[in-house]
């Protein structure tokens, strides 16, 4: 009692303004201390090793702006199927360590149908979504809900050695026949070892490459509206025969049936081939100072026959949030940051990927570095899709198995495509 009485009297002696100031300081410290001492939340994501280093400057910037969130990248293999398997097994086993899923456009139906992803439909309004490439946004939807926010788009292109064509007075190819003839011409002159390199390994890249050849021959894989399967139609068989002929004629090395993107890029970058089918990241790498291809490349959509249309396969990567994540709000902050125009611009300028924000295709700084980007937007807007159906992952597996058997001479193109078509029909029934 006595102590309390003494304390009250003592308080009376302190001037009022000082008392208010002391109380304010105590309250402010009380409120902010937990924030200052809180351990940062870690948001983890699995990505391709190739891209992991390319992300570092963006991650550093994110950390500066968001001291309470750390992004942890876990490096995976460069091939899309292998990363997909790692995500899939972690989600199937439960207790996935990944808060974000950095997803290839073709995984969305499978991941969403399995219930592994958070519905992001209410997180981003239509107006903001309309700033992104339409195909990219649509690729993130499943049964009317949005599960993936696009980060970088992708589009399959044909690269050619403009320097070699010019030196021999040749124009870039328009048709499949041109592609073969120019290749053979330059090979016979001893100018180059190989004509055309493409992704022939049994994996997702094979399907992405093949939709372009199908389109060029006026053929199709699966009609997404009617679910009709076109793989055993004569035009589709012609498309397989064309690919096989590139090997038979020695235009493509026989090893092409084991090549993924990076294998083909290395061969091309070492000056061994005149044509390459690949994604736009190759162009940026060719501009680096130590690249023997600097200033020597041309780029155009895939060639086609008069009956077909030039097809550029729509690819691309974006973010979803894992339903099992304990840090969904922090994960969303990361997505918002990566989606920002200034952040994408910086990333594209450094690494030459295709933006998912439409405005960046005509951005003066980007065009100054990559002058073909305004044209690329037109190609992106007319891209061919791999069928965006719920059973995509089984459908692509069927195609890859049978197509690979045809390309490696284990089956005739007719038999392989008949089997692929029938198996696909059974799947879709
Ligand atoms: C690229 C594309 C992706 C595609 C993959 C195939 O990463 O962006 O959509 O599935 O290549 O290898």
Keywords:
4-stranded antiparallel sheet, 14% strand, D-Maltodextrin-Binding Protein, domain 2, binds alpha-D-glucopyranose, alpha+beta, 19 helices, 2 domains, 429 residues
Task: Kindly summarize this structure in a few lines.
The protein is an alpha+beta fold and 429 residues long.
Describe this structure in words.
- The chain has 19 helices and 12 strands.
- The chain is of the alpha+beta class and 429 residues long.
- The strands form 4 sheets. A 4-stranded antiparallel sheet has the order 3-11-6-12.
- The longest helix has 22 residues, at 16-37.
- It starts with a helix and ends with a helix.
Strand and helix map with partners:
Elements: H1 2-13, H2 16-37, E1 41-48, H3 49-65, E2 69-76, H4 80-93, E3 100-104, H5 108-113, H6 126-129, H7 134-138, E4 141-142, E5 145-146, E6 149-155, E7 157-161, H8 162-167, H9 176-188, E8 194-197, H10 204-216, H11 234-248, H12 261-269, E9 273-278, H13 281-286, E10 297-300, E11 314-321, H14 328-339, H15 341-351, E12 354-355, H16 364-369, H17 373-381, H18 392-407, H19 413-428
Parallel strand pairs: 1-2, 8-9
Antiparallel strand pairs: 3-11, 4-5, 6-11, 6-12, 7-9, 7-10
């Amino acid at each position: 009692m006595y102590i309390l009485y003494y304390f009250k009297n003592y308080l009376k002696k302190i001037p009022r303004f000082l008392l208010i100031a002391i109380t304010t300081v105590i309250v402010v410290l009380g409120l902010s201390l937990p924030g200052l001492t809180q351990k940062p939340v870690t948001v983890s994501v699995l990505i391709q090793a190739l891209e992991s280093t390319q992300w570092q400057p963006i991650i550093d910037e994110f950390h500066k702006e968001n001291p309470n969130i750390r992004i942890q990248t876990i490096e995976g293999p460069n091939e899309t199927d292998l990363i997909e398997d790692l995500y899939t097994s972690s989600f199937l086993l439960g207790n996935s360590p990944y808060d974000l899923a950095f997803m290839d456009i073709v995984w969305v139906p499978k991941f969403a149908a399995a219930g592994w992803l958070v519905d992001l439909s209410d997180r981003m309004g239509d107006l903001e979504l309309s700033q992104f490439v339409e195909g990219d946004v649509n690729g993130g939807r499943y049964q009317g809900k949005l599960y993936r926010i696009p980060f970088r788009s992708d589009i399959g292109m044909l690269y050619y050695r403009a320097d070699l064509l010019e030196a021999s007075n040749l124009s870039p190819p328009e048709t499949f026949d041109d592609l073969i003839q120019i290749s053979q011409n330059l090979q016979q002159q001893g100018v180059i070892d190989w004509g055309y390199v493409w992704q022939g390994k049994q994996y997702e890249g094979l399907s992405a490459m093949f939709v372009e050849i199908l389109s060029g021959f006026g053929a199709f894989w699966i009609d997404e509206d009617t679910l009709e399967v076109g793989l055993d139609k004569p035009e589709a068989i012609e498309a397989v025969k064309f690919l096989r002929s590139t090997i038979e004629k020695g235009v493509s090395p026989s090893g092409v049936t084991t090549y993924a993107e990076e294998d083909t890029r290395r061969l091309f970058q070492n000056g061994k081939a005149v044509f390459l089918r690949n994604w736009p990241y190759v162009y940026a790498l060719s501009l680096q100072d130590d690249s023997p291809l600097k200033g020597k490349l041309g780029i155009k959509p895939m060639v086609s026959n008069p009956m077909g249309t030039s097809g550029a396969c729509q690819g691309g990567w974006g973010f979803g949030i894992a339903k099992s994540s304990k840090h969904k709000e922090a994960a969303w902050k990361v997505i918002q940051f990566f989606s920002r125009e200034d952040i994408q611009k910086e990333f594209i300028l450094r690494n030459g990927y295709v933006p998912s924000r439409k405005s960046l295709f005509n951005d003066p700084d980007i065009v100054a570095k990559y002058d073909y980007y305004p044209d690329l937007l037109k190609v992106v807007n007319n891209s061919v899709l791999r069928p965006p159906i719920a059973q995509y992952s089984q459908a692509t597996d069927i195609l890859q198995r049978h197509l690979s058997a045809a390309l490696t001479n284990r089956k005739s193109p007719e038999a392989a495509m008949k089997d692929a078509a029938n198996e696909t029909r059974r799947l879709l029934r």
